[in-house]
Amino acid sequence: MSTSPVHFAMPSPAATLQQLCADGALPGEVLCFQDDFSQGPLADCDLIDPQARMGYWNAVLWAQDWWPQRDEDFVHAYWASRKAQLKALERRAPLYAWAGGHAGEWLMLCMLAEHAHADTPLYHVGVPAQGGRSCMGIQPPQALAGLFASARLLTATEREKLAAQWRYWQEHGNGIRYIDAQGCLQQHLVDHYDNALVNAIKAAGKWPVTRLVGDVMGREEQAWLSDSFLFWRVKKLVDAGVLKRENVPGGLPFICHW
After folding, report:
1. pLDDT score at 68
2. What is the dihedral sign for C-alpha 23, 24, 25, 26?
3. Tell me, what's the pLDDT at 130?
4. How far apart are the C-alpha atoms of 8 and 171, rounded to whole Å?
5. Among 6, 76, 179, 241, which is least packed, fewest CB within 10 Å?
6. CA distance linking residue 6 with residue 22, whole number of Å
C-alpha cells in the first residue's frame, strides 16, 4: 500500500492545499473533488457512466449562456477528478477527507467511507465548532495548514455509519442538501429558493442576474448555495414565465418581473 496520502477537497480549499503541498507544508497530493453532492440527484453519481448526474450538471451549467465554455470546462475537470479518484482508491493510499459544515464536503466523506477499501486508512479533517456554520471553503490558508494536525483516523464503526448515510442519500437525494444547527444532513426541494428569487426581483424591480443571485446567496443562512444552482433556478423561472429576462449585448442579462 502506498504511504503517500491523498487529500480529497472541494475546489476552493483544494487550491490552497495544493499550494501547501508545493511548499512542503503538507505531505502527499491533493485531489480537487469537482462534484458538489449538496445538490441534485445522487442515485448514479458513483457509476462509470452517471447519466442522470451529468444531465443535471449540464442543465445547471447551460443556464449560464453568457459563459459559453463553463459547461465544457466543468466536464473536463469532472472527468479528470473522477479518474484521479478511482486511481487513488485502487492504490489504497491513506485518504484525508477535508469536510466541514458544507453538505457537499460531508457527502464526499460519506462516499469515501463507502468506496474506500477496508484496509485503506481514512482520516477526517474537520472544522472546529465556532458557534456558527463553517466549511473548508471559507478557511484562511493558515487555518488549513493547522487543521491537518487534527486529522482523525476513522474507526470501522464510524466508517460504516458514514457509508450508510451515503447509501441513504443516494436513494433519497434529489434536492438541495444542508447541515442543520444540530449537525444533521437535511434536504430542501429543488425549487425551495424560487420564491426568494421572485421576491427579491419584486422588491428591486430590475437587477443584473448576478446581483439577483448574489442577493439570495447573501441572505441564505442554512445551505451553502452555489451561484450556478441559482442561475439555473432563474432560468427555470424565466422559462415558466414567472420572471422576465432582458438581454444586454456583450453583457450579463437583466432580470425583472412581468
Report:
1. 84
2. positive
3. 58
4. 23
5. 241
6. 14
Cell of 253: 442579462
Q: How many residues are there in the chain?
A: 258
Q: For residue 203, what is the DSSP state?
A: H
Helices first, then strands: H and E counts in the chain:
9, 10
**Start-end of H helices in 93-240:** 103-115, 141-147, 156-172, 194-204, 209-219, 227-239
pLDDT at 127: 85
Closest of 230, 202, 201 to residue 214, by C-alpha: 230
Other Cβ atoms closer than 10 A to 9: 25
Nearest to 201 by CA among 245, 150, 126, 257: 257
The residue whose grid cell reads 433556478 is 233
Q: How far is CA 52 from CA 47, 56, 76, 252, 254, in A?
A: 10, 6, 17, 29, 31
Identify the pLDDT of residue 254.
97
* Amino acid 191: pLDDT: 97
Angle subtended at Cα 40 by Cα 200 and Cα 100, rounded to the nearest 5 degrees: 85
All three cell numbers of 59, joined, read 442543465
User: Closest by alpha carbon to 222, among 184, 180, 257?
Assistant: 180
- Residue corresponding to grid cell 453583457: 251
pLDDT of residue 175: 96
115, HSE (Cβ side, Cα atoms, 13 Å): 19
Spans in the chain with pLDDT lower than 50: 1
Q: Which residue's C-alpha cell is 485518504? A: 95
Q: What is the amino acid identity at position 122?
A: L
